[in-house]
Specification:
Shape: globular
CATH topology of the largest domain: Nucleotidyltransferase, domain 5
CATH class of the largest domain: Alpha Beta
CATH superfamily of the largest domain: ATPase, nucleotide binding domain
Radius of gyration: 23 Å
CATH architecture of the largest domain: 2-Layer Sandwich
Distance between the termini: 31 Å
Order of helices and strands: HEHHEEEEEHEEEEHEHEEEHHHHEHEH
Helix content: 40-55%
Strand content: 15-25%
Strand order of the largest sheet: 6-5-4-7-11
Length: 403
């Protein structure tokens, strides 16, 4: 009889093989190009198992094989990499008054993108325009099929069914967005939805470069028309029971402060979002808002770069507010890093030292000195890359659990 102290793991042989395939597939994604020998060494799977699974992946078109010169060995080894050009995903981001759509390969590289301003802010119009753009890009790039479509939106979203609980900047509440997509295109076989800040954190986790790759616990601060955050702990994005974990954007940083779109006062978003920055700039310049020719955050940044002292001052204030809000994150979570993304990065030379000042003013036993403040390493809009990552992640994970 077996010793009860021994940990015996039983299971369906096909399931175990699928898990091994996922391990190999993800290792190739992260380390490509890589040889079979190195895969066996790193995963500690025997060589015959690796060879069998790699042969299957090559046959199914998931991988490519190539000779790579290596001075350390007498014979050049065959190296493996993902066949990224064969599989594509759709990415859609619903922003305030604008729809962004893109096609990505499964390696996270953008293939094509476009932007449209909808005629109105109804969910039906946003979905119709988005799918119209997506199909146009597919036709242009001669892509006949997508592995799926990822959709990100600023608001509380139930990712299981695409139910938008509330999206304040769009005026949406209790919208069955997933069903609207299927009503417009019933042939979509995979749809994934997520809050845009959480999706940005996921994108940084999967495709981030530089220092962020050293961290398994960080918070992504998405600065746009609103302000959202995505929390990553142990390399997993935190959800919460109601999918509202990490909503630091609506934590008050000033008691009885400015009214926020959420109905409360003093929220971080009301001070550090792009909308708040532009509002302060217009007020100090005595400029009346003009919906037909609105002044945007990029215009404020451009003015600051041209020496406009009002614009510089307003952006410095935004930096300080970002630092104050970040201090709450550090107190609550003590992360390894806080990553900031959005148009505000174009004024990083102006805002960064003010972020540190805001942090120092709200310091908490010196914890802020241990947390790295980083700008996003992503070259495209994080929330759009995040939309693609939703499907790319599923593509790899689905391969793991299929039985």
């Amino acid at each position: 009889m077996a010793d009860k102290k021994n940990k015996i793991i039983g299971g369906n042989a096909k399931l175990v093989r699928n898990i091994n395939r996922a391990v190999i597939l993800n290792l190739i994604r992260e380390r490509q190009p890589i040889s079979r020998v190195d895969i066996s060494r790193i995963t500690q799977l025997n060589k015959s198992t690796v060879s069998s699974i790699v042969a299957e992946l090559l046959e199914n078109g998931y991988l490519l094989e190539e000779l790579v010169p290596d001075s350390k060995v007498g014979r050049n080894p065959l190296q493996l990499r993902l066949n990224v050009s064969r599989f594509h995903v759709g990415a859609i981001n619903f922003d305030t008054k604008i729809i962004r759509v893109a096609l990505f390969d499964i390696g996270g590289k953008i293939v094509a993108k476009s932007e449209k301003i909808p005629e109105n802010t109804t969910p039906q119009e946003y979905v119709r325009k988005a799918l119209e753009q997506l199909h146009a890009l597919m036709e242009k790039k001669r892509i006949s099929e997508l592995e799926g479509i990822g959709v990100t939106i600023a608001g509380l979203v139930d990712p299981e069914n695409g139910h938008v609980l509330v999206a304040p900047n769009l005026g949406w509440k209790n919208v069955k967005l997933g069903q609207i997509f299927l009503d417009n295109d019933p042939d979509i076989h995979l749809l994934r939805f997520y809050n845009d800040a959480k999706a940005s954190a996921l994108a940084e986790l999967w495709f981030g470069t530089g220092a962020i790759k050293n961290f398994s616990n960080f918070v992504f601060v998405s600065v746009g028309a609103g302000l959202g955050t995505g929390v990553v702990i142990n390399r997993k994005v935190v959800e919460g029971v109601s999918h509202a974990a990490g909503e630091f954007g609506h934590i008050p940083i000033f008691e009885n402060g400015i009214s926020c779109i959420c109905g409360n006062k003093g929220c971080w978003e009301a001070y550090a979002s792009d909308r708040a920055t532009v509002k302060r700039y217009l007020a100090r310049k005595n400029i009346e808002p003009d919906e037909s020719q609105p002044i945007l955050i990029k215009d404020v940044i451009k003015a600051a770069k041209s020496g406009d002292q009002t614009a510089i001052k307003v952006l410095e204030e935004t930096g300080e507010y970002l630092g104050i809000g970040t201090s709450f994150i550090i107190r609550a979570l003590d992360p390894q890093a806080v990553v900031i993304g959005g148009h505000i990065l174009q004024a990083w030379d102006i805002v960064y030292h003010k972020i540190l000042k805001g942090l120092a003013d709200r310091s908490f036993f010196g914890l802020e000195k241990e947390t790295k403040i980083l700008r996003s390493s992503l070259k495209e809009r994080p929330r759009l890359i995040g939309a693609a990552t939703l499907v790319i992640e599923h593509f790899f994970n689905d391969y793991k659990i299929t039985i």
